[in-house]
Design a protein that fits this description.
By secondary structure, chain A is α/β, with parallel strands linked by helices. Chain A has 13 helices and 14 strands. The termini of chain A are far apart. Chain B is globular and about 40 Å long. The chains are: A alpha/beta, B alpha/beta.
Chain lengths: ~375, ~210
Amino acid sequence: MAARTAFMQGNEAILEGALHAGARFFAGYPITPSSEIAELASTRLPARGGVYLQMEDEMASMGAVIGASAAGAPAFTATSGPGFSLMQENLGLAAMAEVPCVVVNVQRSGPSTGLATRPGQADVMQARWGTHGDHPSLVFAPASAQECFDLTVEAFIWAERLRTPVIGRADVVVGHLRELVALPDPEDGRALASRPRPQGPPDDYCTYRPGPDGVPPLADFGSPYIVHLNGSMHDERGYPSADPAQAGRLIQRLVAKVQARVGEMVAVRHFRHDPPEGAPPRPAVLYVAYGSTARAAREAALMLAEKGVPARLLQLKRLWPFPDSEVEAAALEAGLTVVPEMNLGQVVLEVERVVGKRRPVWSCAKSNGEPITPDEILARTLEVVGA
Amino acid sequence: MERFEALLSGSGGQGMILAGIVLAEAAVRQGLNAVQSQSYGPEARGGASKSEVIVSSGEIDFPRVTRPRVVLCMSPQAFERYGRTAPPGALVVVDSSQVGDTGGGGGGCDSRLVRVPITALARERAGRAVAANMVAVGLISGLSGVLERGAVLEAMRRHVPRATQEANERALQAGLEVAESVAAGAAEGVAVGGARGAVAVTAAGRDGSGARQG
Protein backbone atom coordinates (compact mmCIF):
# COMPACT_ATOMS: atom_id res chain seq x y z
CA MET A 1 0.00 0.00 0.00
CA ALA A 2 1.30 3.40 -0.93
CA ALA A 3 1.54 5.70 2.08
CA ARG A 4 1.86 8.72 -0.16
CA THR A 5 2.55 9.71 -3.73
CA ALA A 6 5.04 12.31 -4.84
CA PHE A 7 6.00 13.88 -8.14
CA MET A 8 9.72 13.26 -8.36
CA GLN A 9 12.68 12.68 -10.60
CA GLY A 10 14.01 9.17 -11.27
CA ASN A 11 17.25 10.04 -9.50
CA GLU A 12 15.32 11.26 -6.47
CA ALA A 13 13.32 8.03 -6.47
CA ILE A 14 16.58 6.04 -6.47
CA LEU A 15 17.66 7.90 -3.32
CA GLU A 16 14.22 7.34 -1.74
CA GLY A 17 14.46 3.65 -2.57
CA ALA A 18 17.90 3.41 -0.98
CA LEU A 19 16.68 5.12 2.19
CA HIS A 20 13.59 2.91 2.29
CA ALA A 21 15.78 -0.19 2.06
CA GLY A 22 17.88 1.01 4.99
CA ALA A 23 20.95 2.56 3.32
CA ARG A 24 23.16 4.25 5.88
CA PHE A 25 26.24 5.19 3.90
CA PHE A 26 26.97 6.92 0.59
CA ALA A 27 30.39 7.75 -0.79
CA GLY A 28 30.73 9.20 -4.24
CA TYR A 29 32.01 11.74 -6.68
CA PRO A 30 29.15 13.64 -8.33
CA ILE A 31 28.85 13.24 -12.08
CA THR A 32 26.19 14.19 -14.61
CA PRO A 33 23.55 12.73 -14.94
CA SER A 34 23.63 11.04 -11.53
CA SER A 35 24.53 14.09 -9.40
CA GLU A 36 21.07 14.56 -7.88
CA ILE A 37 21.50 11.25 -6.06
CA ALA A 38 24.69 12.46 -4.34
CA GLU A 39 23.20 15.88 -3.69
CA LEU A 40 20.15 14.45 -1.96
CA ALA A 41 22.19 11.82 -0.10
CA SER A 42 24.35 14.62 1.32
CA THR A 43 21.41 16.03 3.27
CA ARG A 44 19.05 13.09 3.72
CA LEU A 45 21.53 10.51 5.04
CA PRO A 46 23.08 12.66 7.81
CA ALA A 47 19.57 13.76 8.81
CA ARG A 48 18.78 10.16 9.75
CA GLY A 49 22.07 9.29 11.37
CA GLY A 50 23.76 8.02 8.22
CA VAL A 51 26.95 9.19 6.56
CA TYR A 52 27.62 11.00 3.27
CA LEU A 53 31.22 11.17 2.10
CA GLN A 54 32.33 13.18 -0.91
CA MET A 55 35.44 11.36 -2.15
CA GLU A 56 38.33 12.48 -4.32
CA ASP A 57 37.39 10.13 -7.15
CA GLU A 58 35.35 7.07 -8.05
CA MET A 59 38.04 4.52 -7.16
CA ALA A 60 38.16 5.88 -3.63
CA SER A 61 34.34 6.07 -3.56
CA MET A 62 34.06 2.33 -4.15
CA GLY A 63 36.74 1.71 -1.54
CA ALA A 64 34.83 3.74 1.04
CA VAL A 65 31.58 1.94 0.18
CA ILE A 66 33.25 -1.45 0.68
CA GLY A 67 34.75 -0.33 3.99
CA ALA A 68 31.49 1.04 5.33
CA SER A 69 29.63 -2.10 4.30
CA ALA A 70 32.25 -4.28 5.98
CA ALA A 71 31.56 -2.30 9.15
CA GLY A 72 27.90 -3.29 8.84
CA ALA A 73 26.23 -0.33 7.10
CA PRO A 74 24.17 -0.91 3.93
CA ALA A 75 26.18 1.25 1.54
CA PHE A 76 25.88 2.62 -1.99
CA THR A 77 27.27 5.00 -4.55
CA ALA A 78 26.01 6.58 -7.76
CA THR A 79 27.89 7.48 -10.90
CA SER A 80 27.82 7.50 -14.70
CA GLY A 81 29.95 5.97 -17.46
CA PRO A 82 33.38 7.53 -16.79
CA GLY A 83 33.03 6.99 -13.04
CA PHE A 84 31.62 3.50 -13.47
CA SER A 85 34.73 2.61 -15.49
CA LEU A 86 36.92 3.77 -12.62
CA MET A 87 34.93 1.68 -10.14
CA GLN A 88 35.52 -1.62 -11.91
CA GLU A 89 38.59 -2.68 -9.94
CA ASN A 90 36.94 -2.31 -6.55
CA LEU A 91 33.70 -3.72 -7.90
CA GLY A 92 35.68 -6.90 -8.49
CA LEU A 93 36.98 -6.72 -4.92
CA ALA A 94 33.41 -6.46 -3.61
CA ALA A 95 32.42 -9.51 -5.67
CA MET A 96 35.43 -11.60 -4.60
CA ALA A 97 35.55 -10.48 -0.96
CA GLU A 98 31.74 -10.81 -0.86
CA VAL A 99 30.92 -7.37 0.48
CA PRO A 100 27.33 -6.24 -0.15
CA CYS A 101 26.94 -2.88 -1.88
CA VAL A 102 24.79 -1.12 -4.47
CA VAL A 103 26.29 0.81 -7.38
CA VAL A 104 23.96 3.02 -9.42
CA ASN A 105 25.07 3.81 -12.95
CA VAL A 106 22.87 6.48 -14.54
CA GLN A 107 24.11 5.87 -18.06
CA ARG A 108 25.03 8.61 -20.46
CA SER A 109 26.29 8.51 -23.99
CA GLY A 110 29.89 7.24 -24.26
CA PRO A 111 32.61 6.23 -24.78
CA SER A 112 34.92 8.24 -22.50
CA THR A 113 33.38 11.58 -21.46
CA GLY A 114 31.15 11.20 -24.54
CA LEU A 115 28.00 13.30 -24.38
CA ALA A 116 27.73 14.15 -20.70
CA THR A 117 24.06 15.07 -20.66
CA ARG A 118 22.76 12.76 -23.39
CA PRO A 119 21.26 9.30 -23.05
CA GLY A 120 22.81 5.98 -23.96
CA GLN A 121 22.44 2.32 -23.00
CA ALA A 122 25.83 1.11 -24.09
CA ASP A 123 27.03 -0.05 -20.65
CA VAL A 124 25.10 -3.34 -20.72
CA MET A 125 28.11 -5.56 -21.30
CA GLN A 126 30.29 -3.41 -19.05
CA ALA A 127 27.85 -4.02 -16.22
CA ARG A 128 28.30 -7.75 -16.87
CA TRP A 129 32.00 -8.00 -17.67
CA GLY A 130 33.49 -4.64 -16.66
CA THR A 131 35.58 -6.06 -13.88
CA HIS A 132 37.98 -8.84 -14.79
CA GLY A 133 37.65 -12.51 -14.03
CA ASP A 134 34.64 -14.80 -13.67
CA HIS A 135 32.27 -13.15 -11.24
CA PRO A 136 28.58 -12.88 -10.45
CA SER A 137 26.64 -9.98 -11.89
CA LEU A 138 23.28 -8.74 -10.73
CA VAL A 139 21.89 -5.77 -12.66
CA PHE A 140 18.47 -4.08 -12.65
CA ALA A 141 17.23 -1.54 -15.21
CA PRO A 142 14.34 0.82 -14.35
CA ALA A 143 12.08 2.34 -17.02
CA SER A 144 10.19 4.81 -14.84
CA ALA A 145 10.60 6.90 -11.71
CA GLN A 146 8.48 4.29 -9.89
CA GLU A 147 10.81 1.50 -11.01
CA CYS A 148 13.79 3.61 -9.93
CA PHE A 149 12.37 3.35 -6.42
CA ASP A 150 11.25 -0.28 -6.59
CA LEU A 151 14.37 -1.66 -8.22
CA THR A 152 16.71 0.22 -5.88
CA VAL A 153 14.94 -1.50 -2.98
CA GLU A 154 15.30 -4.79 -4.85
CA ALA A 155 19.01 -4.10 -5.40
CA PHE A 156 19.63 -3.57 -1.68
CA ILE A 157 17.67 -6.68 -0.76
CA TRP A 158 19.77 -8.94 -2.96
CA ALA A 159 23.09 -7.20 -2.26
CA GLU A 160 22.63 -7.81 1.45
CA ARG A 161 21.10 -11.29 1.24
CA LEU A 162 23.67 -12.61 -1.19
CA ARG A 163 26.73 -10.66 0.02
CA THR A 164 27.40 -9.34 -3.45
CA PRO A 165 27.59 -6.04 -5.34
CA VAL A 166 24.41 -5.16 -7.25
CA ILE A 167 24.23 -2.63 -10.05
CA GLY A 168 21.27 -0.36 -10.63
CA ARG A 169 21.51 0.69 -14.24
CA ALA A 170 19.28 3.62 -15.15
CA ASP A 171 19.73 5.97 -18.10
CA VAL A 172 19.48 9.75 -18.44
CA VAL A 173 15.96 9.63 -19.82
CA VAL A 174 14.71 7.83 -16.70
CA GLY A 175 17.08 9.46 -14.20
CA HIS A 176 15.98 12.94 -15.22
CA LEU A 177 12.33 12.11 -15.77
CA ARG A 178 9.82 13.47 -13.29
CA GLU A 179 6.60 11.58 -12.72
CA LEU A 180 4.36 10.34 -9.97
CA VAL A 181 5.86 7.77 -7.57
CA ALA A 182 3.94 5.80 -4.96
CA LEU A 183 6.02 5.60 -1.80
CA PRO A 184 5.31 2.86 0.72
CA ASP A 185 5.13 3.36 4.46
CA PRO A 186 8.74 3.72 5.75
CA GLU A 187 7.97 0.98 8.31
CA ASP A 188 7.50 -1.51 5.43
CA GLY A 189 11.16 -1.07 4.54
CA ARG A 190 12.46 -2.22 7.92
CA ALA A 191 14.69 -5.26 7.73
CA LEU A 192 13.90 -5.71 4.04
CA ALA A 193 17.57 -5.68 3.23
CA SER A 194 19.43 -7.69 5.82
CA ARG A 195 22.59 -9.71 5.50
CA PRO A 196 23.22 -13.05 7.14
CA ARG A 197 25.27 -12.49 10.30
CA PRO A 198 27.05 -15.18 12.36
CA GLN A 199 25.15 -16.62 15.32
CA GLY A 200 27.69 -19.01 16.88
CA PRO A 201 30.65 -18.34 19.13
CA PRO A 202 33.24 -15.93 17.66
CA ASP A 203 36.03 -18.53 17.91
CA ASP A 204 34.25 -20.81 15.41
CA TYR A 205 33.60 -18.07 12.84
CA CYS A 206 35.04 -18.29 9.34
CA THR A 207 34.46 -15.32 7.03
CA TYR A 208 33.85 -17.56 4.01
CA ARG A 209 32.18 -20.70 5.36
CA PRO A 210 28.93 -20.74 3.33
CA GLY A 211 25.50 -21.33 4.79
CA PRO A 212 23.09 -23.77 3.13
CA ASP A 213 22.25 -21.14 0.46
CA GLY A 214 25.92 -20.72 -0.47
CA VAL A 215 26.16 -17.36 1.29
CA PRO A 216 28.63 -17.07 4.18
CA PRO A 217 27.37 -15.06 7.16
CA LEU A 218 29.21 -11.73 7.41
CA ALA A 219 30.32 -10.32 10.75
CA ASP A 220 30.82 -6.58 11.15
CA PHE A 221 34.30 -5.15 11.44
CA GLY A 222 34.71 -4.17 15.06
CA SER A 223 32.45 -6.92 16.37
CA PRO A 224 33.85 -9.76 18.52
CA TYR A 225 34.17 -11.83 15.34
CA ILE A 226 37.44 -11.77 13.42
CA VAL A 227 36.81 -10.93 9.75
CA HIS A 228 39.33 -11.66 6.98
CA LEU A 229 38.12 -10.03 3.79
CA ASN A 230 40.32 -11.02 0.90
CA GLY A 231 40.31 -10.17 -2.82
CA SER A 232 42.86 -12.86 -3.59
CA MET A 233 41.85 -16.49 -3.92
CA HIS A 234 41.23 -17.68 -0.35
CA ASP A 235 40.02 -20.52 1.84
CA GLU A 236 37.01 -20.47 4.15
CA ARG A 237 38.97 -18.58 6.79
CA GLY A 238 39.86 -15.87 4.26
CA TYR A 239 43.52 -16.85 4.17
CA PRO A 240 45.26 -16.87 0.77
CA SER A 241 45.08 -20.22 -1.00
CA ALA A 242 46.42 -21.30 -4.39
CA ASP A 243 44.77 -24.74 -4.23
CA PRO A 244 43.07 -25.30 -7.63
CA ALA A 245 40.24 -27.33 -6.08
CA GLN A 246 39.61 -24.53 -3.58
CA ALA A 247 39.77 -21.87 -6.32
CA GLY A 248 37.34 -23.78 -8.54
CA ARG A 249 34.88 -24.23 -5.70
CA LEU A 250 35.00 -20.57 -4.73
CA ILE A 251 34.43 -19.27 -8.27
CA GLN A 252 31.54 -21.70 -8.72
CA ARG A 253 29.98 -20.70 -5.43
CA LEU A 254 30.22 -16.94 -6.14
CA VAL A 255 28.24 -17.37 -9.33
CA ALA A 256 25.90 -20.13 -8.10
CA LYS A 257 24.73 -18.23 -5.00
CA VAL A 258 23.22 -15.59 -7.30
CA GLN A 259 22.01 -17.96 -10.01
CA ALA A 260 20.20 -20.13 -7.46
CA ARG A 261 17.94 -17.26 -6.43
CA VAL A 262 16.99 -15.71 -9.80
CA GLY A 263 13.54 -17.29 -9.57
CA GLU A 264 12.79 -15.04 -6.59
CA MET A 265 14.02 -11.84 -8.23
CA VAL A 266 12.24 -9.27 -10.32
CA ALA A 267 12.78 -10.20 -13.97
CA VAL A 268 10.41 -8.96 -16.67
CA ARG A 269 7.11 -7.27 -17.41
CA HIS A 270 4.78 -8.40 -20.22
CA PHE A 271 2.63 -6.21 -22.44
CA ARG A 272 0.22 -7.51 -25.11
CA HIS A 273 -1.43 -5.36 -27.73
CA ASP A 274 -3.77 -7.07 -30.19
CA PRO A 275 -5.20 -5.66 -33.44
CA PRO A 276 -8.82 -4.55 -33.56
CA GLU A 277 -11.29 -7.45 -33.80
CA GLY A 278 -11.79 -8.91 -37.23
CA ALA A 279 -8.22 -8.32 -38.38
CA PRO A 280 -6.76 -11.30 -40.27
CA PRO A 281 -4.56 -13.49 -38.05
CA ARG A 282 -0.83 -12.73 -38.30
CA PRO A 283 2.21 -13.84 -36.35
CA ALA A 284 3.03 -11.51 -33.47
CA VAL A 285 6.02 -9.23 -33.24
CA LEU A 286 7.88 -9.31 -29.93
CA TYR A 287 9.88 -6.35 -28.63
CA VAL A 288 12.52 -7.07 -26.04
CA ALA A 289 13.50 -3.75 -24.46
CA TYR A 290 14.75 -2.27 -21.21
CA GLY A 291 15.12 1.08 -19.47
CA SER A 292 13.58 4.11 -21.15
CA THR A 293 13.61 2.34 -24.53
CA ALA A 294 10.94 -0.04 -23.22
CA ARG A 295 8.55 2.92 -23.09
CA ALA A 296 9.22 3.82 -26.70
CA ALA A 297 8.73 0.16 -27.62
CA ARG A 298 5.40 0.05 -25.80
CA GLU A 299 4.12 2.98 -27.85
CA ALA A 300 5.45 1.34 -31.01
CA ALA A 301 3.59 -1.85 -30.01
CA LEU A 302 0.34 0.09 -29.70
CA MET A 303 0.81 1.61 -33.16
CA LEU A 304 1.75 -1.75 -34.64
CA ALA A 305 -1.39 -3.39 -33.25
CA GLU A 306 -3.47 -0.63 -34.83
CA LYS A 307 -1.90 -1.60 -38.14
CA GLY A 308 -3.16 -5.14 -37.70
CA VAL A 309 -0.04 -6.83 -36.32
CA PRO A 310 -0.27 -8.41 -32.86
CA ALA A 311 2.49 -6.83 -30.77
CA ARG A 312 4.14 -8.02 -27.57
CA LEU A 313 6.64 -6.30 -25.34
CA LEU A 314 8.90 -8.05 -22.90
CA GLN A 315 10.42 -5.37 -20.70
CA LEU A 316 13.59 -6.58 -19.01
CA LYS A 317 13.74 -5.22 -15.48
CA ARG A 318 16.68 -7.46 -14.70
CA LEU A 319 19.49 -7.54 -17.25
CA TRP A 320 21.90 -9.85 -15.43
CA PRO A 321 21.61 -12.70 -14.83
CA PHE A 322 19.86 -12.53 -18.19
CA PRO A 323 16.23 -13.74 -17.96
CA ASP A 324 16.81 -16.62 -20.41
CA SER A 325 13.62 -18.60 -19.82
CA GLU A 326 11.32 -15.56 -19.97
CA VAL A 327 12.92 -14.34 -23.21
CA GLU A 328 12.82 -17.81 -24.75
CA ALA A 329 9.13 -18.36 -23.97
CA ALA A 330 8.10 -14.95 -25.30
CA ALA A 331 10.25 -15.19 -28.45
CA LEU A 332 8.94 -18.65 -29.39
CA GLU A 333 5.35 -17.45 -29.04
CA ALA A 334 6.01 -14.66 -31.54
CA GLY A 335 6.89 -14.75 -35.22
CA LEU A 336 9.93 -12.58 -34.83
CA THR A 337 11.70 -10.46 -32.26
CA VAL A 338 12.93 -6.86 -32.51
CA VAL A 339 15.39 -5.54 -29.92
CA PRO A 340 15.51 -1.73 -29.75
CA GLU A 341 18.37 -0.29 -27.68
CA MET A 342 20.48 2.87 -27.43
CA ASN A 343 23.73 1.20 -28.44
CA LEU A 344 25.02 -0.62 -31.48
CA GLY A 345 23.46 -3.93 -30.38
CA GLN A 346 24.29 -5.52 -27.03
CA VAL A 347 21.20 -7.17 -25.55
CA VAL A 348 20.30 -8.39 -29.04
CA LEU A 349 23.30 -10.72 -28.76
CA GLU A 350 21.83 -12.30 -25.63
CA VAL A 351 18.42 -12.65 -27.27
CA GLU A 352 20.07 -14.36 -30.26
CA ARG A 353 21.92 -16.71 -27.89
CA VAL A 354 18.66 -17.69 -26.22
CA VAL A 355 16.49 -17.95 -29.32
CA GLY A 356 19.10 -19.47 -31.61
CA LYS A 357 17.93 -20.16 -35.17
CA ARG A 358 14.37 -20.94 -34.12
CA ARG A 359 13.01 -17.43 -34.84
CA PRO A 360 14.41 -14.34 -36.58
CA VAL A 361 15.87 -11.74 -34.21
CA TRP A 362 16.37 -8.17 -35.44
CA SER A 363 18.31 -5.33 -33.93
CA CYS A 364 16.94 -1.77 -33.82
CA ALA A 365 20.05 0.09 -32.75
CA LYS A 366 20.67 3.79 -32.25
CA SER A 367 23.77 5.29 -30.72
CA ASN A 368 24.03 9.07 -31.18
CA GLY A 369 22.99 10.58 -27.85
CA GLU A 370 19.31 10.78 -28.80
CA PRO A 371 16.61 8.46 -27.44
CA ILE A 372 14.98 6.01 -29.85
CA THR A 373 11.47 7.19 -30.71
CA PRO A 374 8.36 5.03 -31.12
CA ASP A 375 8.22 6.09 -34.78
CA GLU A 376 11.76 4.82 -35.38
CA ILE A 377 10.97 1.47 -33.78
CA LEU A 378 7.78 1.18 -35.81
CA ALA A 379 9.59 2.02 -39.06
CA ARG A 380 12.27 -0.60 -38.37
CA THR A 381 9.58 -3.17 -37.52
CA LEU A 382 7.61 -2.56 -40.71
CA GLU A 383 10.86 -2.92 -42.63
CA VAL A 384 11.62 -6.36 -41.15
CA VAL A 385 8.06 -7.73 -41.28
CA GLY A 386 7.90 -6.63 -44.90
CA ALA A 387 4.68 -4.69 -44.46
CA MET B 1 -8.77 14.65 -22.65
CA GLU B 2 -6.51 14.90 -25.64
CA ARG B 3 -2.85 14.42 -24.82
CA PHE B 4 -1.12 17.79 -24.35
CA GLU B 5 2.59 18.15 -25.10
CA ALA B 6 4.68 21.29 -24.65
CA LEU B 7 8.33 21.96 -25.35
CA LEU B 8 9.96 24.82 -23.44
CA SER B 9 13.31 25.97 -24.77
CA GLY B 10 15.70 28.73 -23.84
CA SER B 11 19.13 29.11 -22.39
CA GLY B 12 20.41 27.82 -19.07
CA GLY B 13 19.33 30.05 -16.18
CA GLN B 14 16.03 31.18 -17.71
CA GLY B 15 14.11 28.70 -15.59
CA MET B 16 12.72 26.50 -18.34
CA ILE B 17 13.12 23.35 -16.25
CA LEU B 18 11.31 24.87 -13.27
CA ALA B 19 8.54 26.09 -15.60
CA GLY B 20 8.11 22.54 -16.88
CA ILE B 21 8.01 21.14 -13.34
CA VAL B 22 5.31 23.62 -12.29
CA LEU B 23 3.15 22.77 -15.32
CA ALA B 24 3.51 19.02 -14.76
CA GLU B 25 2.87 19.26 -11.03
CA ALA B 26 -0.26 21.29 -11.67
CA ALA B 27 -1.54 18.49 -13.91
CA VAL B 28 -0.79 15.89 -11.26
CA ARG B 29 -2.69 18.00 -8.71
CA GLN B 30 -5.69 17.80 -11.03
CA GLY B 31 -5.45 14.01 -10.98
CA LEU B 32 -4.00 13.76 -14.48
CA ASN B 33 -0.89 11.87 -15.54
CA ALA B 34 2.11 14.04 -16.31
CA VAL B 35 5.79 13.67 -17.02
CA GLN B 36 8.48 16.33 -17.18
CA SER B 37 11.90 15.79 -18.64
CA GLN B 38 14.79 17.98 -19.57
CA SER B 39 17.93 18.16 -21.56
CA TYR B 40 20.66 20.68 -21.31
CA GLY B 41 24.30 21.27 -22.11
CA PRO B 42 27.16 20.73 -19.70
CA GLU B 43 27.20 24.42 -18.65
CA ALA B 44 25.63 25.72 -15.41
CA ARG B 45 24.55 28.99 -17.08
CA GLY B 46 24.00 29.71 -20.75
CA GLY B 47 23.95 26.92 -23.30
CA ALA B 48 20.75 25.41 -24.62
CA SER B 49 18.13 24.24 -22.14
CA LYS B 50 15.00 22.32 -23.00
CA SER B 51 12.18 21.18 -20.77
CA GLU B 52 9.40 18.88 -21.94
CA VAL B 53 5.96 18.36 -20.45
CA ILE B 54 3.35 15.77 -21.34
CA VAL B 55 -0.11 15.76 -19.78
CA SER B 56 -2.63 13.02 -20.41
CA SER B 57 -5.58 11.33 -18.81
CA GLY B 58 -4.15 8.02 -20.05
CA GLU B 59 -0.86 6.29 -19.36
CA ILE B 60 2.22 8.04 -20.73
CA ASP B 61 4.61 5.59 -22.37
CA PHE B 62 7.29 7.37 -24.39
CA PRO B 63 8.13 10.27 -22.08
CA ARG B 64 9.58 12.63 -24.67
CA VAL B 65 7.64 15.20 -26.66
CA THR B 66 7.03 14.14 -30.27
CA ARG B 67 3.89 16.10 -31.19
CA PRO B 68 3.99 19.39 -29.26
CA ARG B 69 0.94 21.63 -29.22
CA VAL B 70 3.11 24.49 -27.91
CA VAL B 71 6.79 25.18 -28.59
CA LEU B 72 8.15 27.99 -26.43
CA CYS B 73 11.36 29.71 -27.58
CA MET B 74 13.03 32.06 -25.10
CA SER B 75 16.29 32.66 -26.98
CA PRO B 76 17.39 33.09 -30.61
CA GLN B 77 19.27 29.77 -30.46
CA ALA B 78 16.22 28.02 -29.04
CA PHE B 79 14.10 29.42 -31.85
CA GLU B 80 16.54 28.30 -34.51
CA ARG B 81 16.75 24.83 -32.98
CA TYR B 82 13.20 24.09 -31.91
CA GLY B 83 10.98 26.84 -33.35
CA ARG B 84 12.11 26.45 -36.94
CA THR B 85 11.70 22.68 -36.79
CA ALA B 86 8.39 22.65 -34.93
CA PRO B 87 6.16 19.93 -36.33
CA PRO B 88 2.86 20.69 -38.05
CA GLY B 89 0.09 21.64 -35.70
CA ALA B 90 2.36 23.27 -33.13
CA LEU B 91 1.94 26.83 -31.95
CA VAL B 92 5.39 28.41 -31.78
CA VAL B 93 5.54 31.00 -28.99
CA VAL B 94 8.53 33.31 -29.27
CA ASP B 95 9.73 35.70 -26.57
CA SER B 96 10.01 38.82 -28.71
CA SER B 97 12.06 40.51 -25.96
CA GLN B 98 14.78 37.94 -26.63
CA VAL B 99 14.32 36.84 -30.22
CA GLY B 100 14.53 39.52 -32.88
CA ASP B 101 14.44 37.73 -36.16
CA THR B 102 11.73 35.17 -36.75
CA GLY B 103 11.77 35.69 -40.48
CA GLY B 104 10.93 32.51 -42.29
CA GLY B 105 8.54 31.60 -39.50
CA GLY B 106 8.17 28.50 -37.43
CA GLY B 107 8.40 24.94 -38.63
CA GLY B 108 5.69 23.06 -40.48
CA CYS B 109 3.39 24.70 -43.00
CA ASP B 110 0.43 24.62 -40.70
CA SER B 111 2.25 25.58 -37.52
CA ARG B 112 1.56 29.07 -36.28
CA LEU B 113 3.88 31.59 -34.70
CA VAL B 114 3.11 34.10 -32.02
CA ARG B 115 5.46 36.79 -30.74
CA VAL B 116 4.97 37.72 -27.10
CA PRO B 117 7.29 40.07 -25.17
CA ILE B 118 7.53 37.57 -22.33
CA THR B 119 10.58 38.99 -20.57
CA ALA B 120 9.34 42.57 -20.97
CA LEU B 121 6.00 41.55 -19.50
CA ALA B 122 7.78 39.98 -16.52
CA ARG B 123 9.69 43.20 -15.94
CA GLU B 124 6.59 45.32 -16.31
CA ARG B 125 4.09 43.26 -14.31
CA ALA B 126 6.32 41.48 -11.79
CA GLY B 127 9.15 43.96 -11.60
CA ARG B 128 11.73 41.30 -12.43
CA ALA B 129 12.93 39.76 -15.66
CA VAL B 130 13.64 36.41 -13.98
CA ALA B 131 9.88 35.92 -13.56
CA ALA B 132 9.69 35.45 -17.35
CA ASN B 133 9.43 31.70 -16.84
CA MET B 134 6.27 32.19 -14.78
CA VAL B 135 4.77 34.38 -17.52
CA ALA B 136 5.49 31.39 -19.76
CA VAL B 137 3.83 29.03 -17.27
CA GLY B 138 0.70 31.19 -17.29
CA LEU B 139 0.75 31.39 -21.05
CA ILE B 140 1.20 27.67 -21.66
CA SER B 141 -1.28 26.59 -18.99
CA GLY B 142 -3.82 28.92 -20.55
CA LEU B 143 -3.15 27.53 -24.01
CA SER B 144 -3.34 23.93 -22.77
CA GLY B 145 -7.07 24.17 -22.27
CA VAL B 146 -6.78 21.66 -19.44
CA LEU B 147 -4.60 23.10 -16.68
CA GLU B 148 -6.53 25.03 -14.06
CA ARG B 149 -5.33 28.32 -12.64
CA GLY B 150 -5.68 27.17 -9.03
CA ALA B 151 -3.61 24.04 -9.56
CA VAL B 152 -0.91 25.99 -11.39
CA LEU B 153 -0.77 28.60 -8.62
CA GLU B 154 -0.42 25.93 -5.96
CA ALA B 155 2.30 24.12 -7.88
CA MET B 156 4.15 27.39 -8.40
CA ARG B 157 3.98 28.34 -4.71
CA ARG B 158 5.71 25.10 -3.80
CA HIS B 159 8.74 26.07 -5.84
CA VAL B 160 9.32 29.82 -5.58
CA PRO B 161 10.77 31.57 -2.54
CA ARG B 162 8.13 33.15 -0.30
CA ALA B 163 9.55 36.63 -0.87
CA THR B 164 9.02 36.44 -4.62
CA GLN B 165 5.66 34.70 -4.50
CA GLU B 166 3.56 37.76 -5.17
CA ALA B 167 5.73 38.91 -8.06
CA ASN B 168 5.58 35.44 -9.58
CA GLU B 169 1.80 35.38 -9.20
CA ARG B 170 1.57 38.63 -11.14
CA ALA B 171 3.81 37.16 -13.81
CA LEU B 172 1.61 34.09 -14.02
CA GLN B 173 -1.48 36.24 -14.31
CA ALA B 174 0.10 38.22 -17.15
CA GLY B 175 0.77 34.97 -18.98
CA LEU B 176 -2.81 33.78 -18.52
CA GLU B 177 -4.14 37.05 -19.95
CA VAL B 178 -1.89 36.75 -22.99
CA ALA B 179 -3.08 33.17 -23.51
CA GLU B 180 -6.68 34.37 -23.78
CA SER B 181 -5.89 36.90 -26.48
CA VAL B 182 -3.66 34.43 -28.30
CA ALA B 183 -6.39 31.79 -28.26
CA ALA B 184 -8.84 34.33 -29.66
CA GLY B 185 -6.45 35.57 -32.34
CA ALA B 186 -4.86 32.27 -33.23
CA ALA B 187 -8.19 30.86 -34.28
CA GLU B 188 -8.26 33.37 -37.09
CA GLY B 189 -4.55 33.33 -37.75
CA VAL B 190 -4.29 37.10 -37.80
CA ALA B 191 -2.61 39.75 -35.75
CA VAL B 192 -4.54 40.71 -32.64
CA GLY B 193 -4.12 43.46 -30.11
CA GLY B 194 -3.24 41.45 -27.01
CA ALA B 195 -1.96 42.43 -23.62
CA ARG B 196 -0.69 45.97 -23.92
CA GLY B 197 -1.01 45.72 -27.65
CA ALA B 198 2.19 43.75 -27.83
CA VAL B 199 1.04 40.38 -29.07
CA ALA B 200 0.90 39.28 -32.65
CA VAL B 201 -0.34 36.00 -33.96
CA THR B 202 0.61 35.18 -37.49
CA ALA B 203 0.26 32.40 -39.92
CA ALA B 204 3.80 31.10 -40.18
CA GLY B 205 4.00 29.51 -43.56
CA ARG B 206 7.40 28.72 -44.96
CA ASP B 207 7.42 32.03 -46.80
CA GLY B 208 7.19 33.67 -43.38
CA SER B 209 4.75 36.28 -44.60
CA GLY B 210 3.78 38.48 -41.74
CA ALA B 211 6.06 36.74 -39.33
CA ARG B 212 7.72 40.00 -38.38
CA GLN B 213 4.55 41.62 -37.16
CA GLY B 214 4.44 42.75 -33.57
